């Protein structure tokens, strides 16, 4: 006498495989078709396996176009963006920082030069933060240092101190060399291109895009309650 088949297995077979017709490339018995997402995909029965775990949702992507000495930019980065990033799991929020803002790029005798809204000191700060990102590479490392710079008394004079506190593994000499050489100019040119490619064109700073889009409503929501906005948008 054949052994009894559990009712749960029979129900599963009836649910996922009427007629027990296996999909081409499915080498698994019917009772295993819903055992994992990979098996369900191989047997082409994902839609019939409601208990499968859903893949992780993509993070909410926020890009901040800003200037290093802009008071409103510093306030948003220090009081809204950085605390929100600290509170959320890494997989929920992806941040891109673009220090340039309302700067102007000029070609002077074959060399690129930049003029910034808040003067040469801001151009120096923009390039310092761009070079810091380039040298540190890891977002959590350079964002903490940028937070330190932007929340301090001087954006451009506290690099060494902020690195010692938040990223002692990053060589300040490499950041300075980047700022004084062609790499810094190339990074600022790249930021100029990113800023000029915005659609719609930016009208002020900070300029915030969410998942590649900017609207007055998204900007207002981000400035009023960034944590609430990200939690609402994360699927």
From TrEMBL:
Q: Which residues cross the membrane?
A: none
Q: What UniProt keywords are attached to this protein's entry?
A: Disulfide bond, Glycoprotein, Immunity, Lysosome, Oxidoreductase, Redox-active center, Secreted, Signal
Q: Where is the signal peptide?
A: 1-21
| Role of this protein | Lysosomal thiol reductase that can reduce protein disulfide bonds. Facilitates the complete unfolding of proteins destined for lysosomal degradation. Plays an important role in antigen processing.
Q: Which GO terms describe its cellular component?
A: extracellular region; lysosome
Which InterPro entries does the UniProt entry name for this protein? Interferon-induced_GILT
| Source organism | Alaudala cheleensis (Asian short-toed lark)
Gene Ontology MF annotations: oxidoreductase activity, acting on a sulfur group of donors, disulfide as acceptor
Places the protein is found: Secreted; Lysosome
Enzyme Commission number, as recorded? 1.8.-.-
- Its top-level enzyme class, in one word, is oxidoreductase
Q: Which GO terms describe its biological process?
A: immune system process
Name it.
Gamma-interferon-inducible lysosomal thiol reductase
Give a Pfam family name. GILT
Question: Tell me, how does this one assemble?
Answer: Dimer; disulfide-linked.
**Family membership noted in the UniProt record:** Belongs to the GILT family.
Q: Please, which domain of life does this record's source organism belong to?
A: Eukaryota
């Amino acid at each position: 006498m054949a052994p009894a088949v559990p009712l749960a297995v029979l129900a599963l077979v009836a649910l996922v495989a009427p007629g027990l017709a296996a999909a081409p490339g499915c080498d698994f018995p019917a009772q295993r078709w819903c055992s994992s997402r990979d098996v369900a995909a191989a047997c082409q029965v994902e839609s019939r396996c409601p208990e499968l775990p859903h893949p992780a949702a993509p993070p909410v992507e926020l890009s901040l176009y800003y200037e290093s000495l802009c008071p409103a930019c510093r306030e948003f980065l220090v009081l809204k963006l950085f605390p929100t990033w600290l509170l959320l799991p890494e997989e929920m929020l992806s941040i891109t920082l673009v220090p340039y803002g309302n700067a102007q790029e000029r070609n002077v005798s074959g060399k690129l030069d930049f003029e910034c809204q808040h003067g040469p000191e801001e151009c120096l700060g923009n390039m310092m933060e761009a070079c810091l990102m380039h040298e540190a590479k890891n977002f959590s490392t350079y964002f903490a240092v940028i937070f330190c710079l932007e929340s301090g008394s001087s954006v451009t004079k506290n690099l060494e101190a902020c690195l010692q506190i938040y990223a002692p593994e990053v060589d300040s000499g490499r950041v300075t060399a980047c700022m004084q050489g062609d790499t810094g100019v190339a990074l600022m040119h790249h930021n100029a291109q990113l800023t000029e490619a915005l659609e719609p064109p930016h009208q002020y700073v900070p300029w915030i895009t969410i998942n590649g889009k900017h609207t007055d409503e998204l900007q207002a929501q981000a400035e009023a309650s960034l944590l609430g906005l990200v939690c609402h948008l994360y699927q």
